[in-house]
Amino acid sequence: GSVSAKTDYVVIGADAGSKARKAESLGVTIRFLAWLDTHVMDQTLTEIEAGEKLQSFRKQVSGYLSDSFPSISGSGAHGAIVHYRATEASNAPLRPDSLYLIDSGGQYHDATTDITRTVAIGQPGKDEIFCYTHVLKAHIALDQQIFPKGTTGIQLDAITRQSMWNAGLDYAHGTGHGVGCALGVHEGPASISPRGSVSICEGMVLSNEPGYYRDGSFGIRLENLIIVVAKANDMLGFEHVTWVPFDRRLIDVSLLSEAEREWLNHYHQNVKDKIMPALTAHDYGDGDGDTVAWLTAQTAPL
């Protein structure tokens, strides 16, 4: 029942979160996104090649056991297929002036990670920027939300979608799922979704992953892992444990409130502070100087 689930979460949850923080601190996804930005325009990359490159970075992390699920590496219209998996038959190139969605994670001895970013290949269109910015607003809304004990995933799901609904946008999947520690990357019973009837309790590790999907055109999903933490006045809130920049080319700053801009600048500063020392301390022999320059540019204030 939910009582035992809560107990398990509180015991492993706080620990799982700190371990996830450590595992991702080596900047696997950041190294991949920097590599992608540097190489995507001068060679024909495919979805499978991109996914394999990310996996090769992840395998260099000590304690790596396996990927936590098959990576979703979707270019253009394939990004609109929520659980897309590139095959030899479907494998598409990452074309200029399209969006690319990468959803991946690792199983480590002491952690399970799950992260999604959507990036522009070349020059994004106005519509893609509009939709991306609204998905980002939804992501920020959940990350910042303070709520009383006893609040369910159903309630938090609706709060997350508010700004998207007001802009005429929605997505057909839940906002977040529970995450185990070197266990299931999708772990029940807690979820932030229209079916999430379980109360969200301190110590739970969940995903924050709103999205938007235009059939035959593009898909957007932005996912961090978050831990439920105690807040003032006997309330609860979230602390994120994923540190990867959001694509500035896809953000319309004029659509963000001052508080949202502050959140983003603070988040990006934290990304730089947490990841830069790991990048400079580890020489992976793949031109990490490029990664350092890329990360510096990506985390500058808006």
Strand-helix topology:
Blueprint: H1 2-24, H2 28-39, H3 47-59, E1 64-67, E2 72-75, E3 98-104, E4 106-108, E5 111-112, E6 115-121, H4 126-144, E7 147-148, H5 153-166, E8 176-177, E9 191-192, E10 205-208, E11 211-214, E12 218-221, E13 224-231, E14 235-240, H6 258-281, H7 288-298
Antiparallel strand pairs: 1-4, 2-3, 3-6, 4-5, 7-14, 8-9, 10-13, 11-12, 13-14
Helix pairs in contact: 2-3, 2-7, 4-5, 6-7
Structure description:
This protein is α+β, with helices and mostly antiparallel strands. It has one domain (2-298): Alpha-Beta Complex (Creatine Amidinohydrolase), CATH 3.90.230.10. 38% of the residues lie in helices and 20% in strands. It has 7 helices and 14 strands. The chain has helices at 2-24, 28-39, 47-59, 126-144, 153-166, 258-281, 288-298, and strands spanning 64-67, 72-75, 98-104, 106-108, 111-112, 115-121, 147-148, 176-177, 191-192, 205-208, 211-214, 218-221, 224-231, 235-240. The chain has a 4-stranded antiparallel beta sheet. α6 packs antiparallel against α7. The radius of gyration is 18 Å and the shape is globular. Residues 1-12 have low confidence and may be disordered.
